[in-house]
C-alpha cells in the first residue's frame, strides 16, 4: 500500500516540477489540468484502504485532515506544493538543538553553539567551510 501511495505522490510531484508556464494564471490552469487529477487519485486510493492500523492509520488520517489545505494550491499559484525549502532552512537549527542535548557541560554547549554560529556565517558569505576553518584555526 505504501509503495502505491509513494508512486502516486511521485507522479504528483514530478508533474508539478515539470510544469512550464508564463504567468500565475497559466500555472493555475496547468495545475488544475495536470496535477489535480493525480492528487485526486492519491486521495481516492487513501479513502479505499480498509481498516488501516497503527502508523498507517495515523498517516492516512493526517493526509485526509490536511486535504483542504493542500488543495488551496489549485486556487493560488504562489502556494508551493510542499514546504521543503522551509524545512531544510531550519534543519541545521534542529540538529544543533538535538546535538546540544549531549553536551557534557555548559562550556561544551557554548563551544558547540559558537562553532555552529561560525559555520552558518561562513555559509551565508558563500565561503568554503573547510578552507575557512583551516585558515582561522
UniProtKB/TrEMBL annotation:
InterPro entries xref list: Transposase-related (IPR052344), Transposase_IS66_central (IPR004291)
* All residue ranges annotated as the Transposase IS66 central domain in the record: 2-110
Q: Pfam families of this UniProt entry?
A: DDE_Tnp_IS66
The record ties this protein, via PANTHER family, to: BLL1576 PROTEIN
Write the protein's name.
Transposase IS66
- Organism per entry: Limosilactobacillus gastricus PS3
Taxonomic classification, please? Bacteria, Bacillati, Bacillota, Bacilli, Lactobacillales
Amino acid at each position: 500500500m505504501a509503495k502505491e501511495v509513494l508512486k502516486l505522490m511521485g507522479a504528483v510531484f514530478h508533474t508539478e516540477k515539470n510544469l512550464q508556464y508564463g504567468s500565475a494564471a497559466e500555472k493555475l490552469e496547468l495545475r488544475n489540468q495536470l496535477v489535480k487529477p493525480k492528487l485526486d487519485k492519491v486521495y481516492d486510493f487513501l479513502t479505499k484502504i480498509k481498516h488501516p492500523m497503527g502508523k498507517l492509520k495515523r498517516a492516512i488520517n493526517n493526509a485526509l485532515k490536511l486535504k483542504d489545505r493542500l488543495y488551496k494550491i489549485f486556487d493560488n499559484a504562489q502556494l508551493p506544493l510542499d514546504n521543503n525549502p522551509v524545512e531544510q532552512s531550519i534543519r541545521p537549527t534542529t540538529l544543533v538543538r538535538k546535538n546540544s542535548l549531549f553536551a557534557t557541560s555548559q562550556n561544551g554547549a557554548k563551544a558547540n553553539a559558537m562553532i555552529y554560529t561560525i559555520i552558518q556565517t561562513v555559509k551565508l558569505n558563500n565561503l568554503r567551510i573547510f578552507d575557512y576553518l583551516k585558515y582561522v584555526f
